[in-house]
Amino acid sequence: MSAVGSRRFSEELLGMVGRRVSIITSEGKQYQGDLLGIDEKLNIVMGQVTGSMEGSIKVVLNGAYVKELVLLEKPFDLRALNDRLSRAFPGMTKLREDIGAILVMDSIKVTEKGVVEGGDRLSATRVKQIFEEFARETSQTKR
Fold first, then answer.
1. What domains are defined for the chain?
2. How many CA atoms does the CB half-sphere of 115 hold within 13 Å?
3. By CB atoms within 10 Å of each CB, which of 1, 53, 95, 102 scores lowest?
């Protein structure tokens, strides 16, 4: 695999961390839970597990037995939020997919959780309003 492809694969895997997933092992066992950690060999740490290990606090799966890994929830659309923010702040937004954030005016950091840095100014209040409107609209379309 090329270096770019390998890096992109790793980014995609890391983007699934913290999300609800379903895993099927080569033995046919199925687990659903929150993906807490994953490495390049597909060794997996899960929490809030349902399936044959239901009630477990954490489960570690050996990557050699992972046959299928499926994301069960729609990821937050940072690109669409960036498009919306760039209409209000033309030329002042930077989408940083590598860190899962948008930087507005190089000082306000927005993630899928909202404004996480730079929340003291009037512009940060406007960014927060745009984020909340976007989150409300996208959560309605999921239903």
1. 3-71 (2.30.30.100), 78-142 (3.30.310.60)
2. 23
3. 1
In whole angstroms, what is the distance from residue 3 CA to residue 12 CA?
A: 14
Residue 19 has which token pair?
A: 């999300």
